[in-house]
Specification:
19% helix; single chain; disordered N terminus; elongated; alpha+beta
């Protein structure tokens, strides 16, 4: 995820990432103590909503599995 936070922003590191699977925005993960919390932006991924993943790529893999289980190409 790339954002223009401006030069006066307190944000110095990326702490939120967009998860896209097969051209669909599944949601975002937000860095928190102990991992990344997933927030679904597409109701297809509702079962992942508010789950905590150890790494960003773990959330992405989980989203791919959700689409695969639905028969959609991931």
């Amino acid at each position: 995820m790339h954002g223009d936070w401006g030069e006066h922003s307190a944000m110095t590191h990326h702490n939120a990432f967009i998860i896209e699977v097969a051209g669909r925005s599944a949601g975002i993960v937000v860095a928190e103590r102990g991992g990344f919390t997933f927030f679904a932006s597409d109701w297809t991924f509702k079962d992942m909503d508010r789950r905590i993943y150890r790494r960003v790529d773990h959330a992405e893999r989980a989203a791919r599995r959700v689409l695969a289980a639905r028969g959609a190409p991931a």
